[in-house]
Amino acid sequence: MADTSTPPRGNWREVATIFLRIGLTAFGGPAAHIAIMRHELVERRKWVSEAHYLDLLGATNLIPGPNSSEMSMHLGFVRAGWIGLLAGGVAFLLPAMIIVLGIAWGYVRYGSTPAVEWLLYGIKPVTIPLIVLALWGLGRKAVKGVATALVGLAALVAHLAGANFVIVLLAGGAAVMLVENARHLRSGAGRALWLPLPLLGSGLASGSASGFSLWSMTLIFLKIGALLYGSGYVLFAYMQADLVRANGWLTEQQLLDAIAIGQFTPGPLSTSATFIGYILAGVPGAVLATAGIYAPAFLVVALSNPLIPRIRRSRWAGAFLDGVNVAALALMAGVTWELGRAALVDLFTVLVGAGATVLLVRWRVNSAWVVLFGAGMGLLSAAL
User: Fold this and answer.
1) In angstroms, rounded to a whole number, what is the distance separating the alpha carbons of residues 312 and 2?
2) 271 neighbors 94 (Cβ within 8 angstroms)
3) In terms of Cα–Cα distance, which of 1, 327, 330 is closest to 175?
4) Dihedral pair phi/psi, residue 47, rounded to 5°
5) Across 137-179, where does the E strand assignment appear?
6) Number of compact structural domains in the chain
7) Residue 231 lies in a domain
């Protein structure tokens, strides 16, 4: 049974300070963000145990919303209660929101986005060892026997074959739950399983194609935040359907620029909503779009976090969570493979990735310095 005990509580200022710094240096997408949080808060600061972190990750994958932002909320709640939940979530997304707001101002004023290919060129390779080390540490806790090992392998194969990730998670959880409780199932001793899959947002309407308003825009971003499962690219598919096709408020080029900005800025990719909101309605639009897309996540995390220890104590629900955890790590491994192919494109990037690995393994350097190392190498490559 997982250890969900926690060290003595901190305060919201501590939570806010740490997540501000993580949000400012967390490049590379959700998998990298989750790896950075593990490095900083499990390995270095011991806020939660490896097993508890794994349970939070599994639960996060089962609820809608931006995963890495939800992890910041979960960890903030564990460390400092309800105010910690708010402090962690807001502090993690605030640096990206401010940076994106500044870029959006320049975009509207000058009609272009800054060229930062060199920055990504150096940063992408250093995120790979961060993620791999996180997978190694979490995997040792997640793989508890033959059943979880086989489910993890099957989940990885299913992901690489293009299976829907929600189905992979649920199937992995169900498989481990049934295998681990087969004897109880035969005896009829099984109890009902609660699954944290809130059906939020089904009643939210899309904005009307008849005209733009702040209210209709906010409703669209609320709906997207409540129904968002999967990667950031799922987010952009929703945006394209509602903002480009259904309402015509945004052009395809503006959406593509929003994608690019989300990729080269630190913090959660979902702050692309800030950029789009600014284009549509200035600062009020940016604030409301960001609030709309994140409000459901704050609500769902607040409802689900207190239930996670209770789920873990249940024989059936705990086994289900074990299956979800190992399937989630398998999906993360699949994403890492794809990221690695995109990041390690030549000898220079391979050497940068190897240097980051040495810094992390040999000297256990803070992840923020590792990201700065990658940025410096990217700058060096631009100068050569």
Assistant:
1) 7
2) no
3) 327
4) -65, -40
5) none
6) 1
7) yes
Sorted by sequence, the CB contacts under 8 Å of residue 68 that are 6+ apart come out as 26, 30, 33, 34, 37, 92, 268
- Asked whether residue 258 is domain-assigned, the answer is yes
Q: Which residue has the higher pLDDT, 228 or 21?
A: 21
Check residue 204 and report its DSSP letter: P
Q: What's the pLDDT score for residue 198?
A: 39
Q: H/E element holding 116?
A: none
Best-predicted range by mean pLDDT (69-83, 124-138, 239-253, 265-279): 69-83
Roughly how many angstroms between the first and final C-alpha of the chain, as a whole number?
Answer: 53
Q: Which domain holds residue 225?
A: 214-301
Q: Given this model, what pLDDT does residue 41 score?
A: 95
Nearest to 67 by CA among 93, 46, 47, 49: 93
- 152 found inside a domain: no
Confidence at residue 344, expressed as pLDDT on a 0 to 100 scale: 92
Main-chain phi, psi angles of 2, to 5 degrees:
-70, 145
Q: Please give the Cα distance from 156 to 169 (Å, whole number).
A: 11
DSSP, res 129: H
262 belongs to a structural domain = yes
Type and span of the H or E element at 211: none
pLDDT band at 149 (very low <50, low <70, confident <90, very high): very high
pTM of model > 0.70: yes
Cα–Cα dist 272/289, whole Å: 9
Which range is least confidently modeled, 18-22, 165-169, 262-266, 373-377?
262-266
User: From CA 93, how far away is CA 274, in angstroms rounded?
Assistant: 11
158 token code pair:
């299913």
Two tokens, residue 74? 């979960």
CA nearest 268: which of 122, 88, 84? 88
- In whole angstroms, what is the distance from residue 17 CA to residue 342 CA? 32
| Tokens 């705990």 belong to residue | 318
H/E element holding 17? Answer: helix 12-25
Question: In 211-239, which positions are buried (b, 16+ CB within 10 angstroms) versus exposed (e)?
Answer: ebeeebbbbbbbbbbbbbbbbbeebbebb
- Contact assessment for residue 53 and residue 42, using Cβ atoms and an 8 Å cutoff: yes
Between 251 and 289, residue with greater pLDDT: 289
Q: b vs e for 57-93, b when ≥16 Cβ sit within 10 Å of the residue's Cβ?
A: bbbbbbbbbbbbbbbbbbbbbbbbbeebbbbbbbbbb
Structure tokens at 146: 């033959």
